[in-house]
Amino acid sequence: MTDLAPILERLATVLERPPLPPDRILWDAARVGEYLGVAPRTVAENWAHRPGFPKAIALGGERALRRWKAKEVMDWAERQREG
């Protein structure tokens, strides 16, 4: 049987941290897709290039990881619903 004490300690540490506000959270294509209900590939290959879609932040060098601010994606989705 596994010792639960280290697991509970890590969980307590995570729960003690205040949550980040949505304008500070970065999502990858998988998380954006999950939020919007589409495949990550659809986000990366189609939606990311649409006019008005939030601009990705490139992290890293030559093969940069693309991330989107969660708040910008949520705001964009809300505007799509309105229009």
Walk me through this protein's architecture.
This protein is of the alpha+beta class and 83 residues long. Helix content is 48%, strand content 12%. The protein is built from 4 helices and 3 strands. The protein has helices at residues 4-16, 29-36, 40-45, 70-82; strands spanning 26-27, 57-59, 65-69. Strands 1-3-2 form a 3-stranded antiparallel sheet. The radius of gyration is 17 Å and the shape is elongated. The relative contact order is 0.17. The model has no long low-confidence stretch (mean pLDDT 88).
The termini sit apart by 55 Å
Q: Using DSSP, what is the number of strands?
A: 3
Indicate the low-confidence ranges by residue numbers: none
Widest sheet, order of strands: 1-3-2
Number of helices: 4
Largest sheet: 3 strands, antiparallel
List keywords for this structure.
single chain, 83 residues, alpha+beta, 4 helices
